[in-house]
Amino acid sequence: MVSSKCVLLLSIVWCVGTLGQFFQDEVFVDVEDYAEQCDTVAKENEIFLVHFRGFLPDGTEFFSSYDLPHPVVLLPENTQTEIKGLRKGIVGMCVGEVRSITVPAYLGYGDQEHVTKKGIKIPANSELVYQVRLLFTNDADQLGDAFDAIDNNRDGYLDRQEIRYQLAILEGEAAATDMGFGEEDANEKLVELMFTNNDKDQDGRLSRSEYLGVLYRDGEL
Question: Could you say which DSSP state residue 119 is in?
Answer without folding.
Answer: -
